[in-house]
Design a protein that fits this description.
single chain, 323 residues, alpha+beta, D-amino Acid Aminotransferase, Chain A, domain 1, 20 strands, 16% helix, globular
Length: 323
């Protein structure tokens, strides 16, 4: 994401901000765009050639879904810890000092450069040279709030791992060792800093329920002996999310990688249309035998949450209501 600040021609001292998302979508805070969805700032931004983005040489390690037949109880031992899973934007952040100055570079999960607000950059200047892994977020918000211009001053950066410290590679160190380096680095941060370390807890159903009760997304369970596997899904990071359920009506099928019935088309009571992947090969065979017989049947899906426009986040097919 890139932001450009423009001084108002008619209102001295007033500035407007044009935002260019990673996907090329432009918005602006000036009255012209707010009321007419068009302005000269956006027109200029769209006509300006986009320079190639710099890519990070570091790729974040990813978490896996909870394995089949596993429960929280399987991770309640001294070898695992629990961290809250926040709904923000994943970032790899590089901090480099030279004399009295410092440079901060931030990269999205896809490796593209990301601009950070000034208060986050100032806070990162307290950290020693290193490569840090974390989540940019609005406390209590969702990932969509991260790009909301009116909430930029509320952004915080929660750090949960470190890949390099003072030019020393740490990805081949166990997680508990990397954690000690991270905590040591963050001791230099001010008490009210918008950059901080994600707390760790013992794995327990009570703590997980606390997170869910206040509207949290869930938790990441972490093996304290796991190495940092850049760009890979690690068996040492397990996502544990709370899922909701909803009943929708099957309206048809779409072709996908596994054939003409790979994707199920659904509609809810409010007229919102979504698609989910066919659950397994058995379902594929049933749909192929008589697809018309499934039109109108009620299907229960699981999902994480609903967005403001009624869409379902990460929906998955579960079972038919008449089974």
């Amino acid at each position: 994401m890139k932001t450009i600040t423009h001084a108002s021609n008619s209102r001295p001292g007033v500035e407007y901000t044009t935002t260019i998302d990673d996907d090329g979508r432009c918005t602006c805070t000036c009255p012209g765009f707010v009321y007419r969805q068009k302005c000269r700032h956006v027109a200029e931004a769209k006509s300006t050639p986009v320079l190639p983005t710099v890519e990070s040489c570091h790729q974040p390690m990813l978490a896996r879904a909870l394995p089949a037949k596993k429960t929280l109880a399987d991770f309640t031992n001294a070898g695992w810890v629990l961290e809250e899973k926040h709904d923000g934007h994943r970032l790899i952040v590089e901090v480099m000092h030279e004399g009295m100055s410092f440079l901060v570079k931030a990269y999205s999960r896809g490796g593209k450069t990301r601009d950070l607000p000034a208060h986050i950059i100032r806070a990162l200047g307290y950290l020693p040279d290193g490569v840090y892994d974390g989540e940019l977020l609005v406390p209590g918000g969702t990932s969509t709030d991260v790009k909301a211009l009116h909430q930029a001053d509320q952004l915080q950066l929660l750090l949960f791992d470190i890949l390099e410290s003072c030019r020393m590679a740490l990805h081949n160190q166990q997680a508990h060792v990397r954690r000690s380096y991270l905590e040591q680095a963050c001791r230099l941060l001010e008490p009210d800093s918008p950059v901080r370390v994600t707390p760790q807890f013992e794995v327990s159903a009570k703590k997980l329920q606390e997170i869910w009760d206040r509207g949290g997304e869930g938790a990441i369970l972490k093996d304290i002996t796991m190495l940092y596997l850049e760009g890979k899904r690690s068996p040492g990071w397990i996502k544990f999310k709370k899922l909701a359920a909803a009943e929708l009506t099957i309206t048809g099928f779409e072709e996908g990688r596994n054939g003409p019935h790979s994707t199920i088309c659904l509609r809810d009571a409010d007229g919102v249309d979504i698609t989910v992947k066919t659950r397994n090969n058995c379902w594929l065979e049933l749909f192929a035998a008589n697809p018309a017989s499934f039109i109108g049947r009620r299907l229960v899906i699981s999902y994480q949450q609903k967005t403001a426009d009624g869409k379902y986040r990460h929906p998955m097919a579960d079972h038919f209501i008449d089974e």
